[in-house]
Amino acid sequence: MTRRRLARVSLLDPARITEGVGIALESIRVSKARAALTILGVAIGVMVVIAMASMITGINKAVTGMLEQAGPKTFMVMRHFHGGVNIDDGSEQPWDRNPWVSVDEGRLLRRVPGIAEVAWREETNGPASAGLNSVSSIAIVGATPNLIKSAGGQIISGRAFTEIEDAASSYVAIINDKLAEQLFPGTDPLGRLVKLFGIPYTVVGVYAEAASLFSGSDTAPIAVMPHSTFSKAADYWRGGLFLIVKPDDSTTVVDAQDRVITALRVKRGLKPSQENNFSVVTQDKMMEVYNKVTGGFFLVMLALSSVGLLVGGVGVVAIMMISVTERTREIGVRKALGATRREIMFQFLIEAATLTLLGGTIGMAFGGSIAWAVNRFSPIPAAVPLWSVVAAVAASAVTGIFFGLYPARKAARLDPVDALRYE
Amino acid sequence: MSDLVIHVVDLVREYQMGAERIQALRGVSLEIRRNEYVAIMGPSGSGKSTMMNVLGCLDTPTSGEYWLAGQEVSRLSDDALARIRNREIGFVFQTFNLLPRATALQNVELPLVYGGVGGRDRRDRARRALERVGLGNRMDHRPNELSGGQRQRVAIARALVNEPAILLADEPTGNLDSTTSADVMRVFDRLQTQGQTIVLVTHEAEIAAHADRVVTLRDGRIASDLRQDRTRAA
Fold first, then answer.
1. B34-62+78-227 carries CATH number 3.40.50.300
2. Count of CB atoms situated within 10 Å of the CB of A230
3. Do A340 and B106 touch (CB under 8 A)?
4. pTM for the whole thing?
């Protein structure tokens, strides 16, 4: 009994593990091409896991940040919310008959109790210039003065335009920091002129783009002008207006939504049997769509890394079969000296796992570099999450052990007499 | 009869070679006592190798009994036999069979690793075994840094380290020149005087002459079993 237990404990003997690792490194040196294939496969698999996991983590962090800034209760009213990827085949969709959301409806919602702010926003693209500097295409937005109050974001310098400026269709604009940098490098843009659609606007404020799900990319240059000015000056498709609704502190999102829906149904004269011909989109719903997208990401990640690990696994089988054949005699000696099947098997599994863990380590280094590069050169705050490192190490070890199992079993089952006679 | 280290009764070992059934051993009975020095001889095809494999618990007989150090081992499983080999048998092979990447000390430690002996105890025992064969100053050398005679002495140290019931040597001088052979045989002789039971499998009369008893096999049977006055180098 004690002998058995001793034998089991001795499997984890450091001498044995270092021996297995040493033999693995030796066989890598000897058969470089085979080992390279194995290591490369595992490395690619692990790299994909690390890189994609860090990007997903980064995007998650960004999205959570946005939600925190915009306030979790803010929601949107729009003509139709697609929710995910949508293929337009030109045929009429049910929502094509939805009427556009109007400014009047926005004004109506401002009077609904429990609603703190209603902003609206429309958008198009166009060139912008200031003096000798120009940008060929920026997002030009027409919005109510309370856009930033409802959707989040921050005035860095100057001010937002006022209700009076909106009512008077004044030629004023606020620009985001990105556009300020491009049109007015090194100078203060406040009070200067920016040309949009060829018309000059006075810059009254610079803002940091709302970290909000409702405001598009936070890196593109953007200019925002009063909505009334926009509707007169800009040439754009009129169906894209949407309302940004922020409930007051004492009203829940559900209550606020109910009230908004009721108000709009009454305004649009819908019968109880008719469905809403508009969409109310909460951030939860946006999150759902976002999660669907990241789910797709995860699937791609899983597929890519599986292929990599499979290639690595096949390499493990090949290299280990050769290792077993080359060392048949040694296996015979070990058996003669008292190695049991399990001990022989363990030795070869250590060897296989060393091979794949080496690949895993290389993959982690590359994946980590990709994450670093993404973090450095793109807006995604990518960071390698601990779980992906754990998953990578586990995946590479499991690959080695799983694919090493067959060769190791073969070695363990060798007949000692035959093995000792093997030349 | 606690004195009996090996007790073999009517041992038969058959092989299937295609359609033919070959009997390598056709009923061998043999007793070897503690501290005996036995040479097993015979021409090739006599069953000598099969006998050595069965005695070494590398192979199991088709029928018959094999008692090794008081335990019947002829029907044990692979892993049970591995443990018996680890504890009771020290092998010395013609081709040394040392692990090329391991140092002398690591080679000698190997049976202790499989026996579950760890740490300092293992190193001390391996060191002592190497000292017993006169290689205390070569412990950190790898096999390719040692002469043939030294390699075989490392192998003997490895065979001894677990204090086995028998030392089983298969043509231990087959790959050595005559001077080195004499060296290695002196090690065996000394071990025997220290109390070790030794079984030599050889076809060389000169080597067999070191033993107290010579068992000759022919056609799978014992042809003769003679005691002799050993010739020993001084």
1. yes
2. 24
3. no
4. 0.69
